[in-house]
Each structure stands twice: as C-alpha cells, then as structure tokens.
Amino acid sequence: MRIGILTGGGDCPGLNAVIRAVVRKGVGEHGDDIIGFRDGWRGVMEADSVPLDLAAVRGLLPRGGTVLGTSRTNPYALDDGADRILAALDRLGIDGLVPIGGEDTLGVAGRLADAGVRVVGVPKTIDNDLDATDYTFGFDTAVGVAMEAIDRLHTTGDSHHRALVVEVMGRHAGWIALHAGMAGGANVILIPEHPFDVDAVVRHVEHRFASGFSPIIVVSEGAQATDGDLVLATGQKDAFGHVRLGGMGPALAALIEERTGRESRAVVLGHVQRGGTPSPFDRVLATRFGLAAVDALHAGETGVMVALRGTDIVRVPLSVATAKLKLVPPERYAEAEVFFG
Ligand code: F6P
C-alpha cells in the first residue's frame, strides 16, 4: 500500500512519534511505501512530498514539533483546493491518507473521505477539545509544562506578596487551565465554558492574601467575564475562521490590581506549552494511534479517526469526532472550585 501522511494545524508534542509509528508498522510489517506531505494540506495540494523510510524516522520518538512541518491551510477555502488534492493523490498513487490534526484538519479529512479518498485520521491537539476521544496526545505534555510554571510561580509570588495570573492556551475549551490549575494548586481557575464574575475573583484573591499566601489565578485564553467581551490581542483570523486569542491574562492582572490594590502580574505561557519533548503518556498514545491508523487502513476502513476509549484504541467516524467540540462539563469545574480562594 502507498500511504500518505501529513500534520496540520498547530504543532504539538507527539506528532513525530505518530509519524515514526506509521512508518515502523507500515514499512516494517506490511512493506508499505510511506510518503510524507510537507506543511499540512498545503503540501498535499502542491504534491510537495518526501519518502519516509525506516532510516528517516530514527530518533523521532522524543522530538517535539513535526519533521513534516505544518500549516493551517484550508483547501476548502480555495476554489480548486479539493480538486488539486484529488489530482495530487492520483498522480502520486496514494492508496490511503493519514492526516494528523485537530478539528480543522480532520474536518477536511472527513470531506475528502466523502469525496472518495481513503482516509484514517489521527487526533492531536494540546487543547484536548476533540470529541469522541478521551484524550488527544499533546495535552498531557502541555499540562505538565503549565503545571511546572505554576509550581514555580507559587514561590516567587509568595516572596513578593503579589498576585500572579497565568494565561494558558486551549482556545474555546478550558481543559489545559482546569488540569494544570488543579495539578498546580491554583487559587482560581477561569475557563471559557464558565464565564466568571469579577467580584468573585477579587474575593478569592483577597481571601488568599489574608491566609498569608499569594494567589495564583490560571486563566484560559478564551475565558471571559460575565459582563465582558472576549479579550483579543489582535483581530486576526486563520484560514478556518478562528480568531487569534490572547491578552486575557494581562487584562485580568490589571483589573485585579485596580480592584484589590495588590500588585498583580501576568505570565502568558503561549507556545512554550506546545514545544519540546512529549511526556511518556503522549509518546505512548501517539505511538498507539500511529499503529492503529495503519491497521485501520489495511482493514479497508475510511472516514474514521482512531481514538482513545478508556485504555483501548478504537475507530470512530470522522463526522462524529468533528461535529462538536469536547468542552469541560460543569461537574468537572465544580471539582476545581472546591480549592478556590
Ligand atoms: O489549537 C492549539 C492552539 O495552541 C490553541 O490553544 C491556540 O489558541 C492556537 O493553537 C494558537 O495558534 P497559533 O500558534 O497559530 O497562534
């Protein structure tokens, strides 16, 4: 079989581990030819590809980012994007495609499957917001990075008697904020799914100072106040129409300082959450996803995504996985609220 593989959307730790697993299983067990496309759907549209043999994937397991490069190219935002993809796949003799991505990349994958391309998707995103899988790889690493930052901020915050606001990624889902905040013992966690009351945040901050310690407030980039608008650093949008988030951390720190009279600073973790080596959990999950994607293609599947259910890797329709985002349910947020203040 001749299998094409691509990585689309924001990079995340574990992408190279999937690429390695696809090649090791495809070449090693089935004698497949594996072709890597550069920079997501752009590379497929332009037939910009590189052969991936066993030597090409040596040493990839712990390496962050993606050796194939990535982009947020949306072929369906172009008049002839899908036709160019079909023509390129035909010209290169690709029998099956393994797109590794989040809701956008896999949304394109689903449409291509409907157009007759044999596609098995692999879910990735640090945001953990893809539905139909318990976890995406990349999330655990991002949470680890954010938790370590929070641990460090506790000691410097206490020393200077300041409030520290930590802005984390996650777009419209609060999973990173929730898990990093719980793991790091944050005093307030603010997520997009639960608009926050500024007065309540101020009360928690003052309560924490009154106990002799300094508060750490973890805020998701997509969180917003009940009576406010989304804070945006820029008005820019990507090819899938997503607005670029960012700026809530500094805005909230300024508000807390104004309302409490206590010095408040913001730390925006940004892309540091996406870079570097994957955690053990993400290495194993990414590897199992890659193996399962090759199995699914050889089983004749198409229009599916490999997914984690409990400890099993299963196949779910791409249409189900991309129909809606997986958001933090209220009961999970209620667990975190026990520790506020
Ligand atoms: O989807 C992953 C993610 O890191 C989001 O958490 C964040 O909003 C977005 O990508 C940032 O994208 P970019 O790196 O293109 O600005």
Q: What descriptors fit this protein?
A:
Rossmann fold; single chain; alpha/beta; binds 6-O-phosphono-beta-D-fructofuranose; seven-stranded mixed sheet; elongated; 341 residues
Q: How would you characterize the overall build of this protein?
A:
The longest helix is centred in the middle third of the chain and has 22 residues, at 139-160. The protein has eleven helices and eleven strands. A hairpin with a 2-residue loop joins strand 10 (304-309) and strand 11 (312-317). It is of the alpha/beta class and 341 residues long. The strands form two sheets. Strands 3-2-1-4-5-10-11 form a seven-stranded mixed β-sheet, sandwiched between helices. It has a four-stranded parallel β-sheet with strand order 7-8-6-9, with helices on both faces. The protein has two domains: 2-138 and 278-321, Rossmann fold; 141-275, Phosphofructokinase domain (Rossmann fold, 3-Layer(aba) Sandwich). Bound molecules: 6-O-phosphono-beta-D-fructofuranose. 6-O-phosphono-beta-D-fructofuranose binds next to loops.
